[in-house]
Amino acid sequence: MANTGKKTRGKQKIEIKMIENQDDRLITFSKRRLGIYKKIDELSILCGNEIFFIIFSPAGKPFTFGQPSIESIANRFLNGNIHVIDNTCALIEAHCTVRINKLIKLYNEVQSQIDASNETQKVLAQQITSGTDSNRWWETPIDQLNPRELYERYSHFSKLLNLYLSEQEDCNRFFNGCSNRSW
């Protein structure tokens, strides 16, 4: 029978001690640093903590991580004041708020224009389906008109009257010219 034993050692607990080989130590640090950052970020999110983390590589290079930012936590720590406001963050937040308010205002204006256009479309569609023709404006009873519509009707009738009088004058000139001629 064949040996069916495990070929790998599987997941085993590693003894915690300093790695002797310098190259192995650098590789392990590089691989585990991102894992440490991820764990710190998760801790910050889950607990709502502000975290500042600094670690030095075996070569002496510093690596930092801060949530919400390194500067705000360092200022808070150095000043000993819990309520220190990070001016940069406050400025950025104020700018974002102003920009969002402008976009909301623009959105509301566009939405109002769309609503007005939709209302106009509904009125026109209703006129088409009810059989009323906007070209037959003179047939609407006067008592059903608002002041603006009354003024428009007056304006239309004035234009019509002026057009009629102009045409009548042209016709009179034509016929007067024809009667003076001898055929």
Automatic annotation (TrEMBL):
Gene Ontology CC, one term: nucleus
Q: Which organism is the protein's source? A: Gossypium barbadense (Sea Island cotton)
Task: Give the location in the cell.
Answer: Nucleus
Q: Where is the signal peptide?
A: none
Q: Where is the MADS-box domain?
A: 9-69
SUPFAM superfamilies (alphabetical): SRF-like
Tell me the protein's name.
Answer: MADS-box domain-containing protein
Q: Which InterPro entries match?
A: TF_MADSbox, TF_MADSbox_sf
State the source organism's domain of life: Eukaryota
Keywords of this entry: DNA-binding, Nucleus, Transcription, Transcription regulation
MF annotations from Gene Ontology: DNA-binding transcription factor activity, RNA polymerase II-specific; protein dimerization activity; RNA polymerase II cis-regulatory region sequence-specific DNA binding
